[in-house]
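re: ur question from the group chat, yeah i did fold both. here u go
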Amino acid sequence: MSNHSGRGQVAGLPAWDRCAVMGVVNVTPDSFSDGGRWFDTTIAVKHGLDLVTEGADLVDVGGESTRPGATRVDEDEELRRVIPVVRGLASEGVVVSVDTMRASVAQQALAAGAALVNDVSGGLADPDMIPVVAESGAPFVVMHWRGFLEGGNVRGLYDDVVAEVLEELHARVDAVLAGGISPDRIVVDPGLGFSKDSEHDLTLLAHLDRLHALGHPVLVAASRKRFLGRVLAGPAGAPPPARERDAATAAVSALAAHAGAWAVRVHEVRATADAVRVARAIEGARAGPDTPGAHASQASQPAHASQPAPAPQPAPASQTPPRRAEGAR
């Protein structure tokens, strides 16, 4: 069985008994995944409620695209996009996460009812972020981040992507702790697609268990990202559009849940909620020797089939030359 230490409770949030599903509402006109479909406040709130109906445990609301080359919106515009949606969803009892790199947006979103701050920069983009979150007592997502993805400045060279992401995340968590955020309110995110290429993302997913060594719940945000398109396309094919990667996202979600992720962040909720539910049911069926039918099932297997063949493992990043990432989402 996999190590599930990363699926611990986050103080201030409900204690889900399985990997939680975080639905995404992008209140932007230029999202890489949905092209501004939820830019209107009323439509965005309805979409968030629909995601909950489909199985989302919490909803992540963001007003600024983080795709490579995206131009940052100004503070007033981000507030205009985000705060009414946060308020509308929170008033309906939805557990809301605010996806922002600005302390002022986080502060006003928390005042409007948000329960969690999801900062892709881990507090690096705005020095006021950590003090604001610490004072509020809200949980905080610390993502692995090497800077804004502007002008090709993706800083995606690694000798050993797993070791380096762990080291950099550890340093960032230490800074967040030093800033006054409680350790039981910290979530870590490996930052798939941010300053990483497809091989980096796949290697990190193959070694999610190592992130649990940081001692904090793990959020996996793989939904519709570029590396999935490249896997689906194969060596010579053209990657399918973002909205055609939801089945692949659900597959990653099930694997992440089995690896002990605290939550997965996805755009299309229903398929992932089903995948996570099935992964949980299989875990339950394998939970112990007293499971009904377990002994009979084992006895019926030929001796040479009692142990499954080990799955092939990708070569460690240290065995291959450093690769340059091509950007995030």
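okk and heres the other one u asked abt
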Amino acid sequence: MIDILITEFMDEAAVADLERDFSVGFDPTLVEDRRRLMASGEGVRGLIVRNRTRVDAALLGEFPDLQAVGRLGVGLDNIDLDACRERGIEVLPAQGGNTVSVVEYVLAGVLMLRRGAYLSTARVVGGEWPRQALMGHETQGATLGLVGFGAIAREVARCAGCLGMSVIAHDPFVDERDSAWNEAERAATLEALLPRVDALSLHVPLSAGTRHLLGREALALMKSGSVLINTARGGVVDETALAESLRAGHLGGAMLDVFEQEPLAAGSPLAGLEGLIATPHIAGVTHQSNERISWITVGNVRRALGVTA
């Protein structure tokens, strides 16, 4: 009987560490086969997932012995926290494990999109030489806006300051007296933030209050030529409105790591857009962060099951 079930990819050395003390089922294909996953719950005390495994009440009903859900990452919108709480199941995100990866992704996005030239490969190798059209902008002296000001956003702010950027952030859940505001100017409202920034990075969870937070009206408030980076959740941005803004030339570019539907469906409004960099929910996943997150999760699950190394 399996003690710990792992449904998505994980550092294999960390998996081997768990196997010293537990019976482990490590099957990254389970995330693609909901029926087989639902049939695998008997006796499982620890479940380890990333962001694609839906841990809802239906699944929990098939895992009668479950004590802990280890999350290889920090976003929890794929996990029914209320249902877990009702059953006394601990939910254990790998806090801090992917901070460096996400911060580097965001800053790379700001640099690439503001410079602009990095999207010209096909034109250049095809014989064009559009130097004047691709002059772009420097990042030093520009203003970065952050929507959400948690741990990752605060590190983005610190590093952006090292690049000579000014930083403004909006987060109604961070007290105005919090020392975190030493790293950024506080904007009381989103509407006050958007018109002032040259680049905008999103760092909020997906909820009823943040769904389509960046829609037509919000995007219209942004500076002409400003750029958008989203490593949060796809539903925070209205993709149709974003596509319209890019096609109209209002936004200067966007870098999206998350989408309303993953993978994207045929006929996505984002298809064929110039000025868009799209990646497959990989901002927080590097070889180094995968290793850190995996070992953090091993420690979390071990403690929850009462068997430390």
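fwiw on the second one: The longest helix spans residues 287-305. The two ends are 21 Å apart (CA to CA). idk if thats what u expected
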